[in-house]
Amino acid sequence: MRSSFVSEAFSPLIGERALLVDLRAAGAVDALELQAAELWLRQLPCPSIAWIDPDLSGPLRAWSASFDLVVTGEDELAPVLETIRGWPIASLALVQLLRHGRTLDLHEALVAESLVYSMLQAGPEFAAWRSARREARQRTAPLAPAVLCERNDDTLEITLNRPQKHNAFSSEMRDGLCEALHTALADPAIERVVLRGAGASFCSGGDLDEFGSFPDPATAHVIRSTRNPGRLLAALAERVRFDVHGACVGAGIELPAFARRVVAAPSAFFQLPEVRMGLVPGAGGTASLPRRIGRQRCAWLALSAQRIDARTALGWGLVDELAPETEGAARRYVSNR
Fold it and tell me: What is the pTM of this model?
């Protein structure tokens, strides 16, 4: 661990792409050694994974918090290793961003995410993803506004309105959402803001037809820094409730995580697929999700690219309530708050 060649030995370009430490059968450990190893893990140029027993306790349990993520079984580990092997640069960028984010306030964390996202947009893994995705892009005129707003007394209801595309988060939707949130921020008489999605899904993530359409990564960073719905949601957090259902992918959970209250239908599922595109979550998720579910669970979601269901999300604190699927049914909530 103390070799000066560690950075090269664990480089995703010329060395090992991940460090996996099995703590299930570890014996007695020296506290000073663990302290030194904790510092080393912060500087490691690849993701670090601790494999633990769920009932692990004592100094090793505390030390496991220093790893980028923990797993308790092969089913949790396998998809993470698959991602790291296939997309090592984006995997490293993700864990470095999450490590760095522990010391940043929300605004700084959003800036850091945008900088990393912009850098990866110019990288080889994103280029390979774009090249492999050969569907023709068919741009059609919108059938209706991407975001609908309705004011009812002291409540502003906002609906994502691209149901034919499962509310894929487009630049038009981003602009419309920011406009609506600015309205709420400017009017203290709006005491509640409720966000929903039309159709079968709340939001299926970024609109893939727009991926790669940015003028250049630097300009894309300026746009994200100027018009960022996550920052506006954070400012409104105490007044905002999300009602989510169906697919909640990428932006479809990154943005709700900024709010103080997220209500999920039992059908809802949650997923972060961006690393397997050569990117990191780019709608504020590396700032919002660790604050809700912790850095390690956020890293597992992003590196595994696996779906979790609504009850798992409730147990993690990713959502706050489960609501009936049928509209108009009695609201018998299951709550963790």
Answer: 0.90
